[in-house]
Amino acid sequence: MDTEYQFKRKEFKYYVPWERQEALRERFLMHMEYDPFCVNRKEHMYSVRSIYFDTPGLLFYYEKIDGLKVRKKLRVRSYDKPGEHDAAFLEIKRKIKNIIMKERAGVPIGQAPNLLNGARLTLLREKPSIPEKAALSKFVFLMKRLNLNPTVLITYEREAFVGVDDENLRVTFDYNVRSFPNPGFDDLFREEDLRTISPPWFILEIKFYGVMPLWTREIIRDFGLRKQAISKYCNGLDAWLPNEEVAGPY
Length: 250
Hints:
The protein contains 6 helices and 10 strands, in the order E-H-E-E-H-E-E-E-H-H-E-E-E-E-H-H. The protein is α+β, with helices and mostly antiparallel strands. It has one domain: VTC, catalytic tunnel domain (mRNA Triphosphatase Cet1, Chain A, Alpha-Beta Barrel).
């Protein structure tokens, strides 16, 4: 799980058939090792749980659908099961062409509803960094300025790897991606009535700075994978709202 509060990187995404899972994992583990959060877990996975926000007219949804080169999304993210994680992370994720910029602020999970009721939010860390303070202020500002509301819950299991020689190289396998519309904050750990949106594939993400390592490009070539514009947020919303019924942007 990322702990930096502001960073820039590239992210390449691929759909991978389930039957290629073990062979692909073996290839990556020749150059990588399990993320510290995965090492001692059952099946080396943890759960990622996110509530995505959007305007009443689904501005962020349409920025992605229309292929805008500069776009953003806001989400609240936590992990695993209730009681196993006392933090919620407010994330602003921007994409400028191929560069991903993410700002992140951690707050006590019980304070997440304050985003909607106007109550004060406090940061988790006793001495938060300047970027973290700025991320919190910007998140709250955008919530009010754009009239954002919880739009869809996205949940999945993640198997994560980090580079042995380059700790900034990160690879993740995301399984069983599922969604629920119009969630409340008490739905962050919801498991009932979710719709699965990713069979018969899992999602491979390669995250790096600068240039993707040659050996990584060779793996992608050998497995015949094709980079795709995958949005868990848009796919999760589409699972509940047919395109012709989605509200227009504004």
